[in-house]
Design goal:
Number of helices of chain A: 9
Shape of chain B: globular
CATH architecture of the largest domain in chain A: 3-Layer(aba) Sandwich
Strand order of the largest sheet of chain B: 1-2
GO biological process, one term (chain C): transmembrane transport
Strand order of the largest sheet of chain A: 6-7-8-3-9-10-12-11
Number of strands of chain B: 2
Strand content of chain A: 25-35%
Protein name (chain C): Peptide/nickel transport system permease protein
CATH class of the largest domain in chain A: Alpha Beta
Shape of chain A: globular
Family (chain C): Belongs to the binding-protein-dependent transport system permease family.
Chains: A alpha/beta, B mainly alpha, C mainly alpha
Largest sheet of chain B: 2 strands, antiparallel
CATH superfamily of chain B: MetI-like
CATH superfamily of the largest domain in chain A: P-loop containing nucleotide triphosphate hydrolases
CATH class of chain B: Mainly Alpha
Helix content of chain A: 25-40%
Distance between the termini of chain A: 31 Å
Oligomer: heterotrimer
Main location (chain C): membrane
Number of helices of chain B: 13
CATH topology of the largest domain in chain A: Rossmann fold
Subcellular location (chain C): Cell membrane
CATH topology of chain B: MetI-like fold
Distance between the termini of chain B: 10 Å
Mean pLDDT of chain B: 82
Order of helices and strands of chain B: HHHHEEHHHHHHHHH
Chain lengths: 311, 320, 306
């Protein structure tokens, strides 16, 4: 039994159109995916925009309703719907949002923002609450003096730290980080990521890291899943994916990572050309007639690839 | 485009239905019924009851509603007990006066709004713009009835430039030039008073629209390509800003109805608004409900026309 | 905004002696109004009118003012009657004070009631969306098109036991839709923000999110709309009273005094009866609008004066 088990997860959105809003073919944002995460690890979910990676994360935390399939967390099945009614175990899963500007309520002071989860789940006196918030602010590297400030008085990186402080306030076990640094300056990205690793060790956190940036994923993750049009094309350990990519889509993603080392420029160029030729010649071999990926097949104990059935 | 028109028409059906039910319920809530207007009050109550049964006034409400609405559709609104004549004839006599008044107001509204709006938008932050903005500020805040009273007091009574009541000089022969001239003369002060107030929203809209459009990229491009200032305004800016305004006249109908009630009352102008008020004070309820139904329908149709013209003028706001 | 990265180890900002409390939104709005001269003068004028009207009306004997005095009909202004008397010998100045008080009171009551209903309905409809919202919007659209004035007049006549309470209820019944539609469209925008999603993942209930998270973000627009509505409602009430469908005659309103001008004689030669009330309505509405527009500018950061 894994820490988090996702089994055949499907999230479809109804698509309304026509004169009287008739239901037409639904949009299959997530179309049958499958993965496990072990406690204390970081799992990376990679894909282009529209591949369904964000929807997957939002379905696990309950913001999008699950069409079919199941999500099991520590042996308990999660359902969607009113998050509040599902009781205390929801507090063990928290989320870090992509946009540090819209994810903090502009009319609330830092104290109110960070103490929101505490007020929902814990009965604290005002002074206890203030002490907790100040302690959390210190943990994320912000001044405890700033509890009475408003979000607009902080920079993007600082705001993201406030968001993280809010997410760890309830000492959760799993954190879903949806593009946590993509809205930040490159100079701040590394700081926030390193800090996320620090608190991972400190609190034994498990991360589901959703990103389009393979560099970040390589730096952060133990396991990686690559998504394309709502399905998995490849899954494996970080080494499996980066050293031995099997699917043409994965290869194209990896060949596109820029490398600043000039001595490797020639080598890199050759690899990219190779992948491009293979893509042009063999694209049809990797995707079904509808342009979607095939079901995953194991090629080693940890490495799965969506290849057409060869017998 | 036809889909938009069709959709909009479909939306109108429940609106008309809802209006008729509302007016019907209102009619039922008002004291008295159709018989109160028809019969001599000294008649025997038993005969009265028999009459009620015969006219279907004891039927369940949905049957009564159906009878009432089918008659209304055919133009039969019942009898006015005060004037002892069919309501439709009574309204017919007054209708044209109100239509002329509304039309004159509408024309004046646009005649005032367009030059003021363009001046204020094109030369924004000059003294002319400040003057116009100041006027719209006051016009927006001032209630119509106060403004109209002041106009009547100053121009009607104090200076005596305009007649202070009626729709035409008594004794003039219909069809003659004097008759038409007298009609227009009587119309002028009420229409100007109303237009000066109703125009301010259009002036404000036009101003902000022009200022907005002025900063759009396609205007900057047009200027960069060497288009003359006149061409930029006539071909690009006004085209974009004036068309929506032209479509607003349908929405104006609801406002005009409220306005004519005050204006006709203040200027003793014999139109439907005045008829409405006098019928209410005389408890002539069949006239009241018919007028509400008529005005409500006019507003709904006005909004329909505006929605459809707007969707033709500006494809972005079509209902999906 | 300063985007400089702050090193993790030395993130302490230059500390003040006290935990530095930033000015709240209300303080910023207040600063803007004080800075806007026209609005500030309007606000002071409004406060003066309200204080003096409510103050003086405590001293005045309303019974005596509204009762007919046959010995002093239609008198011009004098020492005893500052603004003369009407056709019933009633003191016009006293009626002006009481009328202003009544008009202001009903304006405020109707504004608060329509505001409460409008905000509640708009918030729920916009936040939850879906079919209910759809039907509700069609309903509101319908009532927005209708000629409200006429229908209010018709209902005023249809109500059997007519009183100030029923008058304000009828006005409220037809006037809450505008604010509901506005709040609904803002709530619809607001609920798409990530902070609402965040609150859901943090375990806040829908009710709590609506009232604690979304509502504060709508507060400025609510205040602005209610201020502008207050002016409109005072105008509507005095208009209805002017036509004779507002307050009963025993409770004078500003509109009642203006309605004396429907008599051509009074309009032409006894201006002291109707003109002060007319001008008072005009100035009141202008002042409230000035304050409202200044609030609007203050809450819209792009238009702030600095």
């Amino acid at each position: 039994m894994s820490f988090l088990e996702v089994r055949d997860l499907k999230v479809h959105f109804p698509n309304r159109g026509g004169l009287f809003s008739r239901k037409t073919q639904p949009i299959k944002a997530v179309d049958g995916i499958h993965f496990d995460i072990e406690q204390g690890q970081t799992y990376g979910l990679v894909g282009e925009s529209g591949s369904g990676k964000t929807t997957t994360g939002r379905a696990i935390i309950g913001l999008n309703s699950i069409t079919s399939g199941s999500v099991t967390f520590e042996g308990r099945q999660l359902t969607s719907g009113d998050l509040q009614r599902q009781g205390a175990f929801r507090r063990d899963i928290q989320m870090i949002f992509q946009d540090p500007y819209s994810s903090l309520n502009p009319k609330k002071r830092v104290l109110d923002i960070i103490s929101e989860p505490l007020r929902n789940f814990e009965r604290l006196s005002a002074s206890e609450e203030k002490a907790r918030v100040q302690q959390l602010l210190e943990q994320v590297g912000l001044s405890p003096e700033s509890i009475l400030k408003y979000p607009h008085e902080f920079s993007g990186g600082q705001r993201q730290r406030i968001g993280i402080a809010r997410a760890i306030a309830l000492k959760p076990k799993l954190i879903i980080a949806d593009e946590p640094v993509s809205a930040l300056d490159v100079s701040v990205q590394a700081q926030v990521l390193n800090f996320m690793r620090d608190i991972q060790k400190e609190f034994n956190l498990t991360y589901l890291l959703i990103s389009h940036d393979l560099g970040i994923v390589r730096h952060m993750c133990d396991q990686i899943g690559i998504m394309y049009k709502g399905r998995y094309v490849e899954q494996g350990t970080t080494d499996d994916i980066f050293d031995n990519p099997q699917h043409i889509y994965t290869k194209r993603l990896i060949s596109a990572i820029p490398d600043i080392d000039p001595t490797k420029r020639e080598e890199k160029y050759k690899f990219r050309e190779e992948v491009r030729t293979e893509y042009e010649l063999a694209y049809g071999n990797y995707f079904g007639e509808d342009g979607l990926a095939y079901p995953l097949k194991p090629i080693s104990e940890t490495h799965f690839v969506a290849l057409p059935g060869r017998g | 485009m036809w889909r938009t028109v069709a959709r909009r028409l479909v939306i109108m059906i429940p609106q008309i239905l809802l209006l008729s039910i509302l007016v019907f319920l209102m009619a039922k809530a008002m004291p008295g019924d159709a018989l109160t207007g028809l019969l001599d009050p000294s008649i025997d109550p038993a005969a009265m009851d028999a009459q009620r049964v015969r006219l279907g006034l004891n039927n369940p409400w949905h049957v009564q509603y159906w009878d009432w609405i089918t008659q209304a559709v055919q133009g039969d609104f019942g009898q006015s007990f005060r004037f002892k004549m069919p309501v439709s004839d009574l309204i017919g006599q007054r209708m044209m006066n109100t239509v002329w008044l509304s039309l004159a107001t509408l024309i004046l509204t646009y005649l005032i709004a367009i030059p003021l709006g363009i001046t204020s938008g094109r030369f924004n932050d000059t003294w002319a713009d400040r003057l116009i903005t100041g006027y719209t500020y006051i016009g927006f805040a001032a209630p119509l009835f106060i403004f109209a009273l002041l106009m009547l007091w100053v121009f009607g009574f104090h200076f005596g430039w305009f007649p202070t009541g009626g729709s035409v000089e008594p004794g003039t022969e219909p069809g003659t030039v004097q008759y038409v001239a007298s009609k227009i003369y009587h119309l002028l002060l009420p229409a100007i008073s109303m237009a000066l107030i109703t125009t301010v929203t259009t002036v404000q809209y036009l101003r902000s629209e022009i200022i907005d459009t002025k900063q759009k990229d396609f205007i900057i491009t047009a200027r960069a390509k060497g288009a003359s200032e006149a061409r930029v305004y006539n071909r690009h800016i006004l085209r974009n800003s004036l068309l929506p305004i032209a479509a607003f006249f349908g929405y104006e109908i609801t406002g005009l109805i409220g306005g004519t009630i005050f204006i006709e009352n203040i200027f003793s102008y014999p139109g439907m608004g005045q008829l409405f008020l006098s019928s209410i004070s005389l408890r002539d309820f069949s006239v009241v409900t018919s007028l509400v139904l008529l005005y409500g329908a006019a507003s709904i149709i006005g909004a329909l026309i505006s929605d459809i013209t707007l969707s033709i003028v500006d494809p972005r706001i079509r209902i999906k | 905004m300063d985007k400089a990265p702050i090193p993790i180890s030395s993130a302490k900002q230059p500390t003040a002696k006290q935990p530095n409390k930033s000015p709240s939104g209300w303080k910023i709005i207040w600063r803007e109004i004080v800075r806007d001269k026209v609005a500030f003068i309007s606000l002071i004028f409004l406060c003066l009118v309200i204080l003096s009207v409510f103050g003086i009306s405590l001293v005045l004997d309303q019974e005596q003012i509204v009762s007919v005095d046959l010995f002093s009909l239609k008198q011009p202004p004098s020492e005893q009657f500052w603004l003369g008397t009407d056709y019933g010998g009633r003191d016009v100045f006293g009626q002006l004070i009481i009328g202003t008080r009544n008009s202001l009171s009903i304006g405020i009551i109707v504004t608060v009631l329509t505001g409460l209903i409008g905000v509640l309905v708009g918030l729920v409809s916009g936040y939850f969306g879906g079919t209910v919202d759809n039907i509700f919007m069609r309903f509101v659209d319908f009532f927005m098109i209708l000629p409200t004035l006429m229908i209010v007049i018709a209902f005023v006549t249809a109500v059997p036991k007519y009183s100030i309470v029923s008058f304000s209820l009828i006005m409220t019944a037809f006037l809450w839709m505008g604010i509901a539609r506005l709040i609904r469209s803002k709530a619809l925008q607001e609920k798409e923000m990530d902070y609402v999603q965040a609150s859901r993942t943090l375990g806040s209930s829908n009710l709590k999110i609506m009232l604690v998270q979304v509502l504060p973000n709508l507060s400025s627009i609510i205040i602005v709309t209610m201020t502008l509505n207050l002016a409109a409602n005072i105008g509507l009430e005095s208009g209805l009273s002017f036509l004779g469908f507002g307050f009963p005659e025993s409770t004078p309103s500003l509109g009642t005094l203006v309605s004396y001008a429907t008599d051509p004689q009074t309009l032409e030669s006894r201006w002291w009866i109707w003109l002060p009330a007319s001008l008072l309505i005009l100035v009141l509405m202008l002042s409230i609008n000035n304050v409202g527009q200044a609030l609007k500018r203050a809450t819209d950061a792009r238009q702030r004066k600095g």
